[in-house]
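User: My collaborator sent over this chain with a note saying "see what the structure looks like." That's all I know about it. Can you take a look?
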Amino acid sequence: MAKSVISEGRTTTEAIEKGLKELNVSKNMVDIKYIQEEKRSFFSILAPRVVKVELTVKDGVTENLKNNEKQEEPREHKRIVKKEIILSEEEQEKAKNNVEEFLKDFVKQLPEGTSYEVNKEKSGVNVAIKNADLGYLIGHRGETLYAMQTILSAIAGKGIEQKVRVILDIEGYKAKREKTLEDLALKVAKTVIRTRKSVTLEPMQAYERKIIHSKLQSNDKIETYSIGEEPRRRIVIALKK
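Assistant: Without extra context I'll predict from the sequence alone. Here is the result:
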């Protein structure tokens, strides 16, 4: 009989990630059944909820698990050249107005004293929301923040033909997180050099993995690479061979 678990989380992604961790497999190795997921509007992320999913390991996965892990490539080592986004002055202004129109109503749902700032740039807009009581809008390792950023990107691009990039920060979270990850990278690198054993970090988003890679790229004793699949892709810090 196939191995299954029922997992819960505040979001579908969190529920799936918990189940994958319990089964110790990656996402492509399971069948996922959504047991409970509320239909909601964007504003309802302010209210707590529970999402339940059932994860069942696919037939034949156990035998192939080791082979799959060996085939993982350190994707972050490959330089990917992305097309630069350049908006006209008119498009920048429109993107800014789109976001400001949304935030004007959205902040009414937030704690009193919440403020926001929207600045335009050639690729889109930067948004900063400020209030010390907005931890729930950041979420576990920024999960809710990045979800909001994706939504704001769609809102900003309304009526604009090309892609609009939105960079969202809440109460300075990203700067604090970057400092935490840089400190972690240096600490783990020292441990790897001392023990001569590689260390695999816990799953991170691509943005956070890039911070680790960048911090250690000049270290002539250490190499970093990634293994696994989203959302459980991890960085390995190891001695250079």
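A starting point for your reply to your collaborator: The longest strand covers residues 30-36.
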